[in-house]
Write a structure and sequence with these properties.
By secondary structure, the chain is mainly alpha-helical. The chain has 2 domains: about 1-80, Orthogonal Bundle (Fumarase C, Chain B, domain 1), CATH 1.10.275; about 85-135, no CATH class. About 55% of the residues lie in helices and about 10% in strands. It contains 5 helices and 2 strands. The protein has helices at about 1-10, 30-45, 65-80, 85-100, 120-135; strands at about 105-110, 115-120. A two-stranded antiparallel ribbon has the order 1-2.
């Protein structure tokens, strides 16, 4: 029952039941509880009145908001960014091309909004290439 209810929630069938603003000010406690209540209510409907379903137990028995909310956000961000990995690879290749093409171009470095030691512009693009190569792994 709970798994069916969760599936329906994931499909968006009960979006109108989420009355708590996703950007509410707490650490996600209200949003987490709103999810638990919607899932429990729908599981109760699926199972009938003979099977009581409480929002805390068994819908959310071993998790706290400090577990669920950060994990859900990390999963959501991962899913949103995953399609960008190929784009990031193309960007890295463009930076690497500029690193080679501008290896001999002198560039005045900047630090703290002041002029700094001169460097080759290719070095700068090489740094960008390295940064974009590392990020998808993390």
């Amino acid at each position: 029952m709970i798994a069916l209810a969760c599936g329906e929630v994931a499909e968006g069938r009960w979006d109108s039941e989420f009355i708590v603003d996703i950007f509410e000010g707490s650490g996600g406690t209200s949003t987490n509880m709103n999810f638990n209540e919607v899932i429990a209510r729908r599981a109760q409907q699926i199972g009938g009145d003979k099977v009581p379903v409480h929002p805390n137990d068994p819908v959310n028995p071993w998790q706290s908001t400090n577990d669920v909310y950060p994990a859900a956000m990390e999963i959501a961000v991962h899913r949103l960014l995953l399609p960008l990995v190929d784009e990031l690879q193309q960007l890295r290749q463009a930076f690497a091309k500029h690193r080679r093409g501008m290896a001999e171009v002198l560039h005045l470095g900047r630090t703290c909004m002041q002029d700094a030691q001169p460097m080759m512009l290719g070095q700068k693009f090489g740094g960008y290439a390295e940064l974009t190569a590392r990020r998808p792994k993390n």
